Amino acid sequence: MATLLKELPSFSVLLSAYASISAMVMLIRTILNEMVPERMRDYIASKFSELTSTYFSSEFTFFIEDRWQASDNQLFRAAEVYLPTRIGPSSDSLLVGFNDSNEPTAPPKRSIPVNCTIMDDFEGIRLEWTFSSIETKKCYVPNKRYFAVTCKKSARERVEQRYFTYISKEAQVILNKRESLSIYTYDQDCSMWESAVFKHPAKFETLAIEPKLKQFIMGDLDSFGKRKEFFENVGRAWKRGYLLYGPPGTGKSSLVAAIANYLSYDIYDLQFQIVRNDADLRRILTSTTNRSILLIEDIDCSTNVSRGRAQVKEKPEDEEDDEPKSPSAIDPGVTLSGLLNFIDGLWSSCGNERIIIFTTNHKEMLDPALLRPGRMDVHIYMGYCTPAAFRKLSTTYLGIKEAGIKEAKLFGCIDELIESIEVTPAEVAQQLMISDDPKTALEGLIDFLNVKKKKTEEGVVEKEEKTEEGDMIIKDKSPAAPTAEQRQQQKMKRMPQHHEKKGILEKIKTKLPGIN
Ligand SMILES: Nc1ncnc2c1ncn2[C@@H]1O[C@H](COP(=O)(O)OP(=O)(O)OP(=O)(O)O)[C@@H](O)[C@H]1O
């Protein structure tokens, strides 16, 4: 010990060493101040302090941004669902509100405000969450939102391997338990999906369609939900495409609502006309969630995927086109191949448990490529009202479970009229709503059907006269009464689709392997 003390430098030596080091530092600082610009000095200082704090800090921070590469970040979504359940007394702020106008007195829902800090515990690990949002300069690019999760460095691996998986599972459980569904519509100005509470009363029980068709659709949906492994084994994306076609008012939208309620899936209602181009479509579609329905209504209104597009393309360039050009509002930049890429192309593998539904009033207008086998798995014709559909409507609207003696005669008359003209379930439902008294409502429906029948017959006669003369002059509306045979012939000419009513099931084309 004594030898060791002897070898230590004396106090005066230490003092002089300190003085010379300080002088050296002062000299270097003066040189740096003189030679290095101030901004550069600040940058070096901040980097130096960042480096030392990272090296010596005992904490680790994960960042979870709202986007991950080209898609929505599913971990971010899970955190959005999970974190509101962890808001406790230690949180200093909270975002509250609701968008369900059906229940204005319900307690508000919770969400996370910007810069709010939330503490969570997992297997003895303390975690601190902070939510941030950075505004972007470009108006069509949404704000960049992210969570920062801080934990002890020693717990980093457990958080990465176990905690984040736990959050995803918890979020799924919360989503499965929620009482209301959401319907999303795309806001092109903010470049994001906006949601509203979806509480549509349509159910399969209230749908007035042929019972066999109903059974088929429900069975198809059931088997789709159970076939995760099947889809994996056959190397296909876990998706199902439905094309609903038929005249307006035959229940296409009601069927979509019934499917959403049956499966408890959210609906993404995409107005195709607002999509700028294929890249835009890709971004929009990759930001939808699993277990959801992508709905594109009136797909024929998009000129780029309608049959006209193919015909226009085939025309020689110098050929005059007498057809007026479609206004740009209905001529989006999305190409058919861009859309098909999502249905069965490479992008179709993005996401799982998805239902894609297209509706159209004019199937014949669609580009054949969209109708080819393997594209839309099931084609469903939603036809005019049939006696069976009318029975369902009378149960739903008038509470008539089975026609008694009183109604039997009226029912017989209605059945006959319904079979002889084209009347939509929407029109029949409208008439049944006129009175709460079943007899009055049914009689009102008979009057309506009789008027419609008369008008239709008059229309046919008028149309035939027009066709013969080849001009557009409106003729006298009072027709010469046609004979029964003539009426039958007129009906056959006028309603080629009417006969399809009876063969609705033949119109269903099932293309998924494994379903017969
Ligand atoms: N098959 C049906 N079963 C029960 N209700 C129906 C049916 N068809 C139509 N309706 C009633 O008529 C209204 C309009 O129907 P819906 O909007 O579903 O028809 P649509 O075929 O989607 O029409 P569009 O092609 O014009 O969009 C609905 O509110 C619904 O109450």
Automatic annotation (TrEMBL):
GO process annotations (BP): response to stress
Domain AAA+ ATPase span(s) in chain numbering: 238-386
Region (Disordered): 307-332, 458-516
Cofactor(s) needed: Mg(2+)
Reactions it catalyzes: ATP + H2O = ADP + phosphate + H(+)
Keyword presence, ATP-binding: yes
Entries under Gene3D superfamilies matching the protein: 6.10.280.40, P-loop containing nucleotide triphosphate hydrolases
Protein name, per record: AAA-ATPase At1g43910-like isoform X1
Provenance organism: Durio zibethinus (Durian)
Keyword NADP annotated: no
CDD domains per the UniProt record, alphabetical: RecA-like_BCS1 (cd19510)
